[in-house]
Every structure is written in structure tokens, then in C-alpha cells.
Amino acid sequence: MADFDGVESLWVAVRASARARDGFCRWWSPRLGRLTARTSSCQVPEWMPAQITRSDTGFAWRVRLRGHPPRGRYVVIFRAVDGGGNVQRALPDGRRRVGIRVGG
Fold first, then answer.
1. pLDDT-based confidence at residue 1 (cuts at 50, 70, 90)
2. Which of 22, 8, 90, 14 has the alpha carbon at shortest distance from 46?
3. Would you call 68 exposed, middle or buried from its count of C-beta atoms within 10 A (0-12, 13-18, 19+)?
4. Is the pLDDT of residue 68 over 80?
5. Each residue of 31-47: pLDDT tens digit?
6. How many degrees, rounded to 5, is the angle at CA 38 between CA 32 and CA 39?
């Protein structure tokens, strides 16, 4: 499933790039529309469903955050599920996460 051809659903989780002082992570909460105030394990993401748009050259995805992230750096991780229930956590290029910057 590394090429994303048979993907039925795509899930995305976003966390602040820097870990909190306690060593844990602050995940983006779609319910709150912001990063969580409390930290939690970096191994237990807050998954959000993403919409997939396919084209001849690949695909694009979009997720509804229900809020505006403040300026800063974030880490985005992915979980794709195919029709057979198989889960793929790596992108086609082998990366498991992507770093992004919001604002400046």
C-alpha cells in the first residue's frame, strides 16, 4: 500500500514540533480547535479524518482543523487504511512524518 492506490481513508495528526517541558506532546484537537493545554504521550496521536482528492499525477489531502494554528512549527503524521483494513503509517517516499511551519 506504499503507493496509496487502494487507500480508503486517510487520518492526520498534528502536534507542536517542540515537546513540552515534561517531555510529552501537545496535539491539535479538532474538538477544541487548538492545541491541547494538557500534554499527552507522543505515541498516542489525536487523529483527524482527512479528505483525499485524487488526480492523474497523485493525490492531495485536506483536513478540517476547526481553528487557526498559531505561528510556529508543527509535525504532521499520517495513517492510511485500505479496503482490507491494512494500516500504512509511512508516506510513499518512506517518511513517517512531515514538518511544517505556520506563518513567518
1. very low
2. 14
3. exposed
4. yes
5. 999 999 999 999 999 99
6. 115
Q: Look up cell 509535525; give the residue.
A: 75
Using a 10 angstrom Cβ sphere, with 0-12 exposed, 13-18 middle and 19 or more buried, the burial of residue 34 is middle
Report the C-alpha gap between 25 and 62 in whole angstroms. Answer: 23
Q: Which amino acid is at 11?
A: W
How far is 27 from 39, CA to CA, in rounded Å? 8
Cell numbers describing residue 45: 496521536
> What is the C-alpha separation between 93 and 67, in angstroms, rounded?
30
Is-above-0.90 flag for pTM?
no
Kindly report each contact of residues 58-63 with a partner whose C-beta sits within 8 Å and lies 24 or more positions away, as own/partner.
Answer: 58/4, 59/4, 59/7, 61/10, 61/12, 63/12
